[in-house]
Design a protein that fits this description.
Length: 202
Amino acid sequence: MLGTLRLGGLGLCCRRLPRGLWVHAQLLSGAAETRQSVAVVSSAGGPGTAGDCLELLRKRDYENYLCSLLLPSESRSSAFALRAFNVELARVKDSVSEKTIGLRRMHFWRKTVEDIYCDNPPHQPVDIELWKAVRRHNLTKRWLMKIIGKREKNLDNKAHCNIQELENYAENTQSCLLYLTLEILSIKGLHADHAASHIGKA
């Protein structure tokens, strides 16, 4: 039993996937176990950097790995890249013992995003795949920077004092991820953005 799952990576929660979608996700998940199939699932034309992003997501964020498999094939590799980027940012706080080290790593990611939008990404799998996603879907730089900025502030490891602070954190992390996912899916509109904002804070 999977429990609560976010459908399609958009944060639409339910207790369980409809049987047909669950079987489809399991088949795709099984296919992704081999390098050859990773290329098919990620629609990237080869295991390489796309396969690295997929594997990172499978190991570190399995829920969104499964959800991303349910997206249209032409959108999957970009969704994997976006979620892998988020995993890398989340790992900073968990992997450093001093805030100054964490700040340096966040500075690295901020510069990485700047380089990506200058068509000069670092030669790392997540960076390269995120660059491809930005070029393919014209992703909004502001949302990526907001995620970095809010995760950087969260390095202090202080508890949120009230619901407003918690919602602000969610809006600038989870909601921004959903805005970018909508862009990957070419879904535009005030109502979609409004829903993504609320779902991200749910």
